[in-house]
Design brief:
alpha/beta, Rossmann fold, two-stranded antiparallel sheet, 11 strands, globular
Length: 214
């Protein structure tokens, strides 16, 4: 059984969670949603959903991949800067038991805050590139790729990039044929009706994690 661990938090981005879970589900991959405490968690600007497992429930378990989503900036600031650092410490502990360590959108900042992107190339949402650059041990790739793989690290761009990245993780875990079957089943052949240009990244709206240079 292939298993992915997806740790969530209040005000997490809906598509960062639901989109990849849809892809993984069609591939027959088991996804364990976990939160610091089991119970109801709310998507950003949307509805609540139930999380049945806590961090303590899965501590020490091995997973094939860790998938870290982005979310509301104010919540990210708290997860990165609060002295307990419960979320980041959980990521660091679980990453040691995973074959792949992945993020989508600003989830890369949480990986960086946990020290899990030190020495790696990575990407994130275009508006948060300067936040990721605040971590000197992380190499932020130029441009705006949908995802970047560096050894066993897989980081995605903003929100919708998680769909592409999820297909890539399926390919890495289960092979090309499995990824193609999920693409057919979900009919994921995007052709957006608009082609907006991405602007220059603004100054980082978040402080760096505690203990890292500003």
């Amino acid at each position: 059984m292939t298993r992915i661990l997806l740790p969530v938090y209040d005000q997490v981005d809906m598509l960062d969670v639901a989109g990849p879970m849809e892809m993984f589900g069609w591939a027959g991959i088991t996804v364990d949603l976990v939160a610091e405490q089991a119970g109801m968690v709310r998507f950003r600007d949307a509805f609540p959903f139930a999380v049945d497992k806590s961090f303590a429930d899965v501590a020490g378990q091995r997973y094939d991949a860790l998938w870290v989503p982005g979310g509301e900036p104010a919540i990210l600031r708290r997860l990165l800067s609060d002295p307990p650092r419960t979320y980041c410490d959980f990521l660091a502990a679980q990453a040691a038991r995973c074959d792949w360590v992945c993020s989508v959108c600003e989830g890369a900042l949480l990986l960086a805050g946990a020290g899990l992107l030190d020495g790696y190339r990575a990407t994130t949402h275009w508006a948060f590139r300067n936040c990721l650059k605040a971590y000197p041990a992380v190499t932020v790739v130029p441009g705006h790729p949908r995802f970047v793989q560096d050894r066993n690290r897989l980081t995605g761009g903003g929100i919708s990039a998680g769909l592409d990245e999820a297909l890539e993780l399926i390919r890495l875990l289960l092979g090309q044929a499995a990824a193609e079957e999920v693409q057919r089943t979900t009919q994921y052949y995007p052709r957006p009706p608009v082609r907006a240009r991405l602007p220059k990244a603004p100054p980082c709206p978040l402080p760096p994690a505690t203990g890292t240079p500003g």
